[in-house]
Design brief:
By secondary structure, the chain is an all-alpha fold. The chain contains 5 helices and no strands. Helix 1 runs antiparallel to helix 2, helix 1 packs antiparallel against helix 3 and helix 2 crosses helix 5. The model has no long low-confidence stretch (mean pLDDT 92).
Length: 177
């Protein structure tokens, strides 16, 4: 596999996924501090999911025989103004990741890297689900802004963002930890 565009961009996406994981941990801790355990749990799960996405990319790079440095990430934002701000930030982040994934697939296609393009297809599907579930959660927390316990009840009742294990998911470095 040639060194360059898609591979370099994929390495960059590893950093993006780890940064998303860290941001979700910061959001989860915020909700934990606010005694909103369902919102906290939702974002702790999202953090693990994003970390696993990074490790899927790492495994792909290793399988392709590419160097796989693990990047550091910027400190995530903490200290949010209200119950809505973290979810709004998370939705914006998911939309940004969707663009990044689409660009990776386009780059792989443009370079004739059909394995890379095929690999990215699962992430495209995943991002559709991520944006939809975060959009739904944002609408709920916006309506529940004055009484966040209503958002907690919603999360207790619904299985937002918890599609379970996906047998079509690419393998992650270290296995499914």
């Amino acid at each position: 596999m040639a060194e360059g565009g898609f591979i370099e961009a994929l390495r960059g996406q590893v950093a993006n996924e780890f940064a998303a994981s860290q941001q979700y941990i910061a959001i989860a801790v915020h909700y934990d501090d606010e005694t909103l355990p369902r919102l906290a749990s939702f974002f702790y799960r999202q953090a693990i999911e994003e970390r696993n996405h990074a490790l899927m990319l790492v495994q792909y790079l290793m399988d392709a025989g590419e160097q796989t440095p693990i990047p550091g990430v910027e400190e995530p934002k903490g200290g949010f103004a209200d119950v809505v701000e973290p979810v709004r930030m998370a939705l914006d982040q998911e939309k940004r990741v969707s663009e990044q994934i689409a660009n990776l697939a386009r780059l792989a296609r443009d370079e004739g890297d059909y394995q890379g393009e095929q690999f990215m297809q699962w992430f495209i599907k995943e991002q559709i689900e991520e944006v939809a579930s975060m959009n739904d959660l944002l609408r709920v927390v916006e309506r529940a802004a004055d009484n966040p316990l209503l958002a907690e009840e919603y999360l207790a009742r619904e299985q937002v963002g918890d599609g379970g294990d996906d047998p079509t998911a690419p393998p992650a470095a270290g296995g499914a930890l």
